[in-house]
Amino acid sequence: MARPSNNLRAIPGVDTLLEAVADCPLPRPLVVAAIRAELRSLRKAGSIPGRDKITATIRQRLDDLALSRLQPVINGTGVVVHTNLGRSPMNPLATTGFVNLEIDLVTGRRGARAAYLERCLAELCGAEAAMVVNNCAAALVLNLRHFTADKKEVIVSRGELVQIGGGFRLLDILESSGAKLREIGATNHTSMDDYAGAIGPQTGLILKVHRSNFFMKGFVAAPERRELAVLARKKRVPFMEDLGSGVLLPTGDWAEGHHEPMPREVLKDGADIVCFSGDKLMGGPQSGIIAGRARHVQALKKHPFFRALRCDKLVLSVLQSTAEHYLHDQGGELPLQGMLTADLASIQRRTRKLAKALKGVPAEIDVTPGHSQVGGGALPEVPLPTVTLDIVPNDIRLVDFAARLRRATPPVIGAISSRRFRLDLRTILPEQEKLLMNSIRQSLVSK
Fold this sequence. Notes:
Helix content is 36%, strand content 17%.
């Protein structure tokens, strides 16, 4: 092995290093950029390592870069709607060629984007009309820009000023739209008098935000949706509800009797507009769905800001497929619904079968009780009973084992808890089990 040197001439050239990592699958421009970045670092260093060490460092850079590519991942965390893993799992759909995005195949003229999908969504929500933007935050901003164009005030209960993932707060989203927030009530208690007393000549919207990612108990009170709808109609003020994690099937059967409000119910109770995410409890792609009164939806579609929030053909195609599943009474067949409704007995059978198949690997393998999570900021008080496959490697630290699994093909994500590496098969598809076993076996081999 070459010894370290202080001579800059000891640094190999780009072409030499390119040849040394010729088997790297990344595009050549990225490989060249990584090599040049390493060479710049070496020129600033006090000591130049040998060529083999330099090559190994560059290869590590390239391996790390390759891991950042979007690729299939086995989710063994037990979090069904996992934001960091793309939220809800979806059925694969390849619509990458030309599609009738904005052409009317009947007349041959230019058509309306997503017209069929909008009819599907309106039917699912029991709405006069519906539309799609790129996420639920965008849906909220678009509505605020429209309804507060002339009258700037938005009435919101203090108990509903939620914070969503990534540190974003409802307050920040409201202010970014140019709306003026009118907070009412207390954190735990807001009354009809609070709403009625806040309505004035500058009130543009009454906004209700479903507390989907947290819950409060004790001395807690808030008006019913129907009461707010009656007040809004009486005062001629639009009433909107942001559901966050929208759900299109009843949750009572699998969520321990907990009922999550559905868009159809919100509109039936009198809301003018409802918005929710397409990639959470609906089980589709990232999108924000707006449904409600036709005159409001049509006005939103004509708003200049809407063009910046439109979805492309890939999102619309997958969302269309998802909506059709529900309309064909096949919503329960979506991967998301399968994971949410999986019974404990079936998870136990699969986990014990996998534990038996791993017998003989250099690790302690156990099956222990646990709880899965819905995730995605939905139903935080509803734990889903499960069992986990627990692995304790004989000769590898848990953090190193977890790192090896993340570098496996395909990558496997689990959780370290109570000095064990845990995998929850609720969030692992049956067809992924063979790949999972291979990744586990390979990661337990000393390297």
